[in-house]
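Allow me, if you will, to draw on your knowledge of protein folds for a short while. A protein sequence and the structure tokens that stand for its backbone fold form the material at issue. I would ask you to consider whether the tokens describe a fold that such a sequence might reasonably adopt. Thank you for your consideration; the sequence and its tokens are set out here:
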Amino acid sequence: MLDVSSEPPAKRGKQTSEQKPTLTYWNGRGLCEQVRFMLAACNVDYDESVPGVDHISHLSDSHHFEQLKAQGNLAFDQVPLLCIDGLHLVQSGAIVRYLAKKHGLVGTSLAQEAMCDVVHQGIRDWHGACGIAFEFNFGHYAPSVEELAKFSQANSKYLPLLERIAVKSHSGFIMEGYGVAGLTYCDVALAEVLDQNLMREPALLENYPGLAKVHANLRDQVWLKNFLASDKRKTKKLEDVEPYKATVNRTLQR
């Protein structure tokens, strides 16, 4: 049975490789934030760095990206890149699933794992339907009327569906209704999206008591409290957004 306590199990942080994992991305949220949430939930200690570039913690110039490609570390010429257990993992969804399976956050049977995949994909669909990346005019960074409409439509579609799942839980973890005990990577994904969306609309869960209960339980988890209070949680002031966007575009030469 999976651990249901708020303390992350020590075994989740045990690494099978002597080399400390590294995570490569820009100094922002984007597709990497779900990976950071998962690493926190699994109690994995890691550094943010650019392999082969000394004293650089984040991508900031085109030659960083070109060097990663030249090294053969990017299977699809994309980041985030997680170097762990001798692997160079790209594609954020694949990274998240690897961590979930390694650290026991997918249930205890093939059927439970399949249902976790179903719910997790639904949460990611919701995230994608809400709009473009956080620093690119989402979050609390002056989204347009069209972006706000998209955000509202996505919440109207997916929140009732997720509520239908959440009300079956009495433990505060979303997959209990499917027989999965304790924290799963679905909860981790839910925590990330709610953390972002509630910034835009603080009363978002007012009519969704099941989700509100799950969210309250997740917010009380030690791993999440520690992560949100750490410098690995990417936050920005409004004046930092445009320079960040320029850095991303410069790195990708667009």
Notes: The chain has two domains: 22-101+231-252, 105-220. The first helix runs from residue 33 to 41. The domain at 22-101+231-252 is CATH 3.40.30.10 (Glutaredoxin). The beta strands are 22-24, 47-48, 81-84, 87-89.
